[in-house]
Amino acid sequence: MTYYPLILVDSGFLFAYYSARDQHHQQVCRFFEKCTSRLITTPICIAEVIWLLNSDWRTQNEFLLDVAKQLYECEQLLPEDFSDIAALNVKYRDLPGDFADLSLIVISERLDVAAIATLDSDFDVYRRYRQQPFERVFWP
Length: 140
Prior knowledge:
The protein is of the alpha/beta class. It has a single domain, classed as 3-Layer(aba) Sandwich (Rossmann fold), CATH 3.40.50.1010. It has helices spanning about 10-20, 25-35, 45-50, 55-70, 80-90, 100-110; strands at about 5-10, 40, 75, 115, 125-130, 130-135, 135. The strands form 2 sheets. The chain has a 5-stranded parallel sheet with strand order 3-2-1-4-7. The longest helix has 13 residues, at about 80-90.
C-alpha cells in the first residue's frame, strides 16, 4: 500500500468499516489495519454515517467515540466553503452532487489532499480544483 500522509475518508467507507453487514466490511477492515495515515472527514460525513447506522445505537456510539478519540480528524467547514459547495452542486447537478461528497471536495482543495478512501464511484467523476482527479487509495 502506498503511503499518503493524509487521506480523506467518505461516509460510505466509514459505514462499511462499522457495519458488519456491508459487503465491503472485511476489505475495509484490512485497509484500516494497515493504514498509518492521518484520516480526515467532515461533520457532514459524520452525520451521514450516524444516519446510515440508524438502527444500531451501539455501533453509532462506537463510531462517535472513535471520532472523539480523533481516529478521524473532523475538518470543520468554513463559511466560504458553503459558496464552493453551492458552485459544485451546480457543476455536479447531473450526478446529483451529494452534500457529504461535496464537503470532501472543498476540504480536499483547502487542505490540498488528493488521496481518498471511498467506495463511491462518483469520486471517479468529481474533480479537485475543477480539473484534477482524486487519488483513490482503495479499490473494492
